[in-house]
Task: inverse folding
C-alpha cells in the first residue's frame, strides 16, 4: 500500500440536480501545467439515468503540440471524494492512478484514511482502461460492476471570456458579450472520467463531492 500526501486542494460541489461544475485554470507555479493541477471537476447524471459520471481534468492550457507529449504522472493520485451524510468528510472515494500506459481506478469504496493523506485502496473494486493517446479514438472500458472509465487528452470543455472579465473588473465594461470569446479555445486538458451506478454511492439523495490530487 502506498501513502499519498495532498499537493493541491481541490474543487468542491454538491450534487442536487443534473450538472454541477467547479473550475480553476490558474494555480501556483509548483503545480501549474502538471498532473497535480486540477482545472475542472464535473459531476452529472449519465446517459443511463441510473449512473453518475465524474470528470476530473488536469494540466490545462495544453496546446495541440504540447498535448502530443503530455502524460499522467505515475506519482500523482487523483482522488474523487464523496460525502453521503453532509458532514464534509469523505465517506467514499474513487482513486485513479496511472501505470505503464493504463489508468487504474479503485472504488467507489470507503477509505481507510480521510483528509490529507490517502492509502491506495488496492483491494477495492478495480477498473482498468488504456490511456488514450492524442488523436486516437477514445478508449473506454466497462467492468463487471457496470463502471465505465476513460483517461486521456480532450479539448478543454470550460468556456470563459477572460478578456471581457478583465474589462469588467477594470470598469471598462458592464457585462459579458453574447457570444463571448472563449479564452480556452484550441487548448486541451488531460481528462479522467469514471461513470458509476448510483447504487454504489447510495442510490438517491444529495451528495457532496470534490476532487484532490495527491503526490507520492
Result:
Amino acid at each position: 500500500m502506498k501513502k499519498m500526501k495532498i499537493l493541491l486542494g481541490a474543487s468542491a460541489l454538491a450534487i442536487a440536480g443534473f450538472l454541477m461544475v467547479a473550475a480553476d485554470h490558474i494555480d501556483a507555479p509548483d503545480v501549474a501545467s502538471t498532473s497535480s493541477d486540477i482545472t475542472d471537476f464535473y459531476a452529472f447524471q449519465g446517459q443511463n439515468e441510473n449512473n453518475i459520471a465524474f470528470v476530473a481534468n488536469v494540466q490545462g492550457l495544453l496546446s495541440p503540440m504540447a498535448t502530443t507529449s503530455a502524460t499522467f504522472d505515475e506519482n500523482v493520485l487523483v482522488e474523487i471524494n464523496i460525502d453521503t451524510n453532509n458532514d464534509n468528510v469523505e465517506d467514499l472515494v474513487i482513486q485513479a492512478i496511472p501505470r505503464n500506459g493504463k489508468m487504474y481506478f479503485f472504488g467507489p469504496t470507503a477509505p481507510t484514511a480521510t483528509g490529507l493523506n490517502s492509502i491506495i485502496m488496492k483491494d477495492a473494486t478495480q477498473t482498468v482502461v488504456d490511456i488514450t493517446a492524442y488523436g486516437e479514438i477514445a478508449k473506454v472500458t466497462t467492468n463487471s460492476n457496470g463502471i465505465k472509465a476513460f483517461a486521456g487528452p480532450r479539448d478543454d470543455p470550460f468556456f470563459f471570456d477572460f478578456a471581457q472579465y478583465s474589462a469588467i473588473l477594470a470598469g471598462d465594461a458592464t457585462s459579458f458579450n453574447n457570444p463571448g470569446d472563449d479564452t480556452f479555445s484550441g487548448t486541451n486538458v488531460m481528462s479522467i472520467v469514471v461513470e458509476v451506478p448510483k447504487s454504489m454511492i447510495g442510490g438517491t439523495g444529495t451528495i457532496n463531492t470534490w476532487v484532490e490530487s495527491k503526490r507520492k
The longest strand covers residues 51-62. The chain is about 5% helix and 45% strand. The CA atoms of residues 50 and 152 lie 25 Å apart. The chain has a mean pLDDT of 86.
